[in-house]
Amino acid sequence: MSGNIESKLEKVADKLGYESKDPKWLLEALMVAGSTPVMWRGQFRRHSEGNKRLAGIGHHLINMAIAEWAFDEGRSIALVRIFDLHGLGSYVSKNPSQRGEISASTKAINIEAIIGAIYKDGGMEPAKVAMVLFAFL
């Protein structure tokens, strides 16, 4: 993720229809493990584990939504399609070892991490709204 970080975070938030209280969560959600540190608000931001913590939260929230609304099988495929549909590839901070295309598993993890970030930032209701906007439900 290079360029104006604030602008990119705003664009992703707009795609989600979500006004973030603290954009640090969305920034972390878009950072892949091992990605290059990014300059944001005068500081270099780096998360050695990338978005794994938020992806874990998002993963469980998605599972809760699936259980609650009996979502069809094929979640990972759906997450990849959602990632591609919303054109999120240019917003992800990639690991330098990842050349070219973002893998399907990385795309799915990023969607889970974004849901986790919204949950951490605003709670369950905004996370549910994001899942609906992402067409999970």
TrEMBL record:
Gene3D superfamilies (alphabetical): Ribonuclease III domain (1.10.1520.10)
UniProt-listed InterPro entries: RNase_III_sf
Superkingdom of the organism of origin: Eukaryota
A GO BP entry: RNA processing
One MF annotation (Gene Ontology) recorded for this entry: ribonuclease III activity
Protein name, UniProt field: RNase III domain-containing protein
